[in-house]
Amino acid sequence: MNTSLKWIKDMVPGLQASPQEYMDVMTLSGTKAEGYEAFDKDLDKIVIGQILKIEPHPDADKLVVCQVDIGKEQPLQIVTGAPNVAEGQKIPVVLDGGRVAGGHDGSKTEGGIKIKKGKLRGVSSEGMMCSIEELGSSRDMYPEAPEEGIYVFSDSAPVGADAVKELGLDDVSVEYEITSNRVDCFSVIGIAREAAASFHLPFKPPVVKATGNDEDVSDYIQVQVEDKELCPRYTARAVKNIKIAPSPEWMQRRLKAHGIRPINNIVDITNYVMEEYGQPMHAYDLDTIAGRKIIVRRAQKNEKFVTLDGQERILDDSILMICDADKPVGIAGIMGGENSMITDSVTTMLFEAACFDGTNIRHSSKKIGMRTDASGKFEKGLDPNNAMEAMNRACQLIEELGAGEVIGGAIDIYSKVKKGRRIPFEPEKYNRLLGTKIAPETMLAYFEKIELGFDKEANEVIIPSWRQDLECGADLAEEVARFYGYDKIGTTLPSGEATTGKLSYKLRIESIARDVAQYCGFSQGMAYSFESPKVFDRLLIPEDSVLRKAVVIANPLGEDYSIMRTIPLNGMLTSLSLNYNRRNKDVRLYELGNIYLPKELPLTELPEERMQFTLGMYGEGDFYTMKGVIEEFLLQAGMHKKPEYHPKAEKPFLHPGRQANVIYDGKVIGYFGEVHPSVALNYSMKDRVYAAVLDMPYIVEMSCFDRKYTGIAKFPAVSRDISMVCPKQILAGDIEKIIENNGGSYLESYRLFDIYEGNQIKLGFKSIAYTITFRAPDRTLDDETVNAAVNRIIKALEEKGIELRK
Question: Rg for the chain (alpha carbons), in Å?
């Protein structure tokens, strides 16, 4: 949002702040000013001169010597090559020592170009005549300027006057960052109201006077609104005896300061009111409106319509249209149609000021690929109570500028009147929130400045409909704070009951996962949740695998990001591959990220999101290193039972002989192992790579932080070593289960310390040796008790075909 500072000052008499001071105060009061541009920043010592006499240059065919009156006794002599000079013209003249913005071609120079007296081909030149480009503007803003040559003022321009001021370039455009909830500030009136309150000055908005002759507008036009949800208010007035002409200079200057090119009085009035009130308007040639009737309805599916820019648009039934009795004449809130546009031959005109549903306008604008100044304002959600005021202001300008005769009365279809709200006035609460001691009377004075009412009997603040952002007491406290001054509010300690914040249980488990991984030398990585379908082939996942049933993204960035991942390994292996190919040694990475598992395809509900704790490494470390990291994490997460491992994990992307499922309390909670060599090669890695994936929802469900303290043992432990021979297919975990189940209540721990396969062991068998430790909490164990426990273990082992090694 940009505004002319001169326009603001016209509505805030007494505002004398410099542009920077204005920006600072407005920003501190909550209307954030981003920056400003002074149109005359590179212009200096430029006056209006009149050419008295033109003579040819004695030594140059393309140059002429001009005598120019600048309102002083002696005229200036200026040599110029401008092709359009003529005696009697009034033109901008840069005096000796003055500055212009840039070159004749419109090129800008920082700080401007300084002009000095000199000689051109031996003839003295005491200044320079300017084109509009050299004055820092363009023919887009000043269409009357010649395509080539100097700018020429009208005959009424005073000789010797400030040319910059005469052109309206003595203004500043201020840029604001307006939040979408402050729709009222998308207008000059809204910004001026804020400025008046911020500088504690009176606010003088335009006074709108009654207009219209003795006729009735209903005799000229009828309006029917079929969709009152999308068009809560529609107002219309008619104007006859239209006289198309240029708008006055003061209006042109204000529009130019807002970056709007003046066209003619009718178009300029609609643009002027849109900037002033923030209410877009549209004008139709009434003679082109079939049946003298306006119908506001939805478009038909695949209906075609040619907009003012000459483009044919294909519409659907969600787009709101303005139609006459036979055809559409405009897309509501976006752009009118070519078939009802205002031309120089117009005699009778229909003015429209309406309020349309902001969300629908935004969607419609996106669908047809067109965003206009009007749609940009409508999509914010305008106040319908502003429509008639803007309409009357436009009609007032029509009469004041002599652009036509306004017909009496107005069409106003307003199905559900929008009213303001009331909020209880609680000054003590506001002071507690702000840490201030502001008097209630002072607060009410602030409210009055921004046109909030006060009902003394009900003790309520009356919020006008255009302040959509004020909904509760905290909003009113903010209004007090910004006009009292944020810089005046001191630092105070918060009051109230102390509360202890902490992470949720799930986040605590995830935090433990990070801590354990980092302690074990793993660095955190993050991978995209979007993947390519080719990932499944790289991971050797079968065609009929459920993992291939992935959520397809409707509008993907590309094929490589077209599905939501169902397995986290691709991101991990990609990251390891990048490190491997950059010759990084001994890399360990971990990731906590979601996979997305659809319940059915095509989707009927959101997919299940499951957090996965993924570990990956190559270099130093092996299968058992990864197993140790998993066990450390489970222990720290409060899962005190020993996990089990099943070698038949059947993961196609892992080595068939070096993989295992992680089982806890009978449930598979993850898997780990060496990455299949073919998969590693698919990721350009020739080293052994190890990966593990743990399903965090299961771990959160099974973890527990209820821990009991046990004191240091007072009595000595007793250890026994047993060495046994067993078939190779028997797992160490199976032996450990036998030890646990038969060791009795005094069993404290057991430790595998040797595995041997060789010539001294018969074929198909292996030797395994354990240290088993027993301890009693209340006494020293005797040999008889320990031997009995060991004998039970040995007997159970023998029943499974496991013999003691002799």
Answer: 42
Tell whether omega for the bond before 602 is within 30 degrees of 0, i.e. cis.
yes
- Number of residues written out for the chain: 806
Q: At 250, list the tokens.
A: 């003061």
Phi-psi domain of 471 (left: phi exceeds 0; alpha: psi -120 through 50; beta: other):
alpha
Q: C-alpha distances in angstroms, 108 versus 42, 169, 671, 726?
A: 9, 16, 66, 90
The two structure tokens encoding residue 731: 């797992």
C-alpha 156/C-alpha 472 separation (Å) is 56
The whole-angstrom separation of Cα 791 and Cα 587 is 47
CB 65 within 8 A of CB 123: yes
- Residue in this structure with the two tokens 């005491």, named with its chain if needed: 126
Tokens for 765, please give them. 């068998």
CB atoms inside a 10 Å sphere around CB 101 = 23
In angstroms, the CA 231 to CA 80 distance is 59
- Are the beta carbons of 232 and 338 closer than 8 angstroms? no
Read off the pLDDT of residues 73-125 as tens digits, 9 standing for 90 and up: 889 999 999 999 999 999 999 999 999 987 655 556 666 889 899 888 889 99
Among residues 748, 797, 752, the alpha carbon closest in space to that of 771 is found at 752
130-180 tens-digit pLDDT:
999 999 888 888 888 898 899 999 988 999 999 999 998 999 999 999 998
Instruction: Write down the residue that tokens 């009149």 correspond to.
Output: 50
pTM beyond 0.70, yes or no: no
Q: What is the 3-state secondary structure (H, E, C) of 682-724?
A: HCCCCCCEEEEEEEHHHHHHHCCCCCCCCCCCCCCCEEEEEEE
- Provide the 3-class DSSP secondary structure of residue 529: coil
- Residue 280 to residue 386: CA distance in whole angstroms: 10
What one-letter code names the amino acid at 742?
A: N
Distance CA 191, CA 186 (A): 8
The candidate with the shortest Cα–Cα distance to 409, out of 662, 629, 221, 216, is: 216
Q: Which two tokens stand for residue 268?
A: 């300029």
Nearest to 726 by CA among 773, 769, 759, 788: 769
Distance between CA atoms of 335 and 330, rounded to whole angstroms?
A: 6
Q: Tokens 């509760």 map to which residue?
A: 472
- DSSP H helices in 143-287: 163-166, 188-198, 249-257, 265-277
Q: Residue 34 corresponds to which amino acid?
A: E
